Amino acid sequence: MDPFVSLDATAQAELVRRREATPLELVDAAIARIERLNPTLNAVVQTQFDQARERARGTLPPGPFTGVPFLLQDLLTAQEGHPLTHGSRFGKDYIPDQDSELVKRHRRSGLVVLGKSNTPEMGLLPTTEGELHGPCRNPWDTSRSPGGSSGGAAAAVASGMVPFAHATDSGGSIRIPAAACGLFGLKPTRGRNPMGGDIADAVHWLVTEHALTRSVRDSAALLDVTCGADAGTPYQAPAKARPYTQEVNTPPGRLRIRVAVRNPMGAAIHPECLAAIHSAARLLEDLGHHVDEGSLEVPGDDAVGQHFITVWTAGVVFSIDAMAERLGRSPEASHFEPFTWALYQYGLDQGLSAYLRASAELQRHSRAALRHFDDVDVWLMPTLNELAPPLGTFSSPPGEPMAPLLRAGAFASHCPMANITGLPAMSLPLHWSPDGLPVGVQFMGRFGDEATLFRLAAQLEAARPWAQRRPAVFG
């Protein structure tokens, strides 16, 4: 039997510190799980097993995660000597010649990278079904999507391949797969983690990187070792008061929590997603918090979606053009999936003036939204408006390449606000449907205040544990 499969990263690292396990034993066990489960899930699309074993045999840094196996998403985060495709056929030959700053910090913490996780092309959809890597499957129901863009990471962690994995978020891509796969997913404050490297912040200030984890303490401990500005960063989050691992062990006190259920797009919300919110609200009241209902609407809300798309598609143009420059060849429609190419063309058509106006309007919207925290500590809302969808839900119908965009907006309409405003937000698996599918709920905190979110998350994890739940496909 595998003695490590049910342990989170913190517990695995503790075994190494106590000399009850070696890094190589942890790595070999994780490799065996990947080889056994990945043919079913397609969560890992590039392996580095020989290098991982060599690193595990060597002298690892004495960090908080010495010897713990880890996956990087095949998106944004550069790793020297290993392909970084961004899930695109166009980028499949790109091999970075240096590690990004985040990867350097991962390595300094003692982590051992086993490979890259599946992602949709350019990370653009809330599902992981790209043409280059093929569809990734949800371990709870393999006919369903694990979400996206960090769907491969979520499937790998939920199935027990690795205890946690790197993930990215430009419009919900950490929180969406966390909700679909029954995991904890925190999107940190803008600027909390470094974005430096040869790719940098490809979608202006919407993107944040962190991880998908089984436990709250793993997320906190990893953020402790990765957070902080890197050289030349254009923005950074307020300094933390103390280590996040201390926040996990600190009671949150009596918080003022406001529930926002209204869908910004007016789309219907699945009854189980509503049930998850109502159940979470009752639990919060039982824990002593003040809970009421409200709305996150601000003047001009009806135009925010358009401004977000303008900035977001400008990021698509930048990303593809930057990739083309690195590869020394021009992008063509045949190199990309129809949805990606349609977004690229749309972004080109917007022009610089539209981009600058949209950026200014989103900044104005952010300032207005922050006033919602004048008398509230944390907002509670759905992570998703639906359960994990069947594979193929976000396919482009013939002649309608942009159709997945509206579908994605209705699916995860509560997620982009945290990216627009830069606020920290997290999804917690506090509810399961009668059919056994996880249903996440989302909490959004004040700018720079991951501390309150970690305190609350740890309290909820203790009150309604989820780690003992196992999907149909598990290590």
How would you describe this structure to a colleague?
By secondary structure, the protein is α/β, with parallel strands linked by helices. It has one domain: Alpha-Beta Complex (Amidase signature (AS) enzymes). It contains 14 helices and 11 strands. Strands 4-6-5-10-11-9-7-8 form an 8-stranded mixed sheet, with helices on both faces. Strand 7, helix 9 and strand 8 form a beta-alpha-beta unit. Helix 10 crosses helix 11. The longest helix is centred in the C-terminal third of the chain and has 33 residues. It is globular, with a radius of gyration of 21 Å. It is an enzyme of class 3 (hydrolase). Pfam families: Amidase. Its EC number is 3.5.2.12.
Please write out the topology.
Blueprint lengths: L8 H9 L5 H19 L2 E4 L1 H9 L11 E5 L27 H8 L3 E6 L33 H8 L5 E6 L5 H7 L2 E4 L20 E6 L2 H11 L17 H5 L7 E4 L11 H16 L3 E4 L7 H27 L10 H33 L7 E5 L20 H9 L4 H6 L3 E8 L5 E8 L4 H14 L12
Parallel strand pairs: 2-3, 7-8, 7-9
Antiparallel strand pairs: 1-3, 4-6, 5-6, 5-10, 9-11, 10-11
Helix pairs in contact: 2-3, 5-6, 10-11
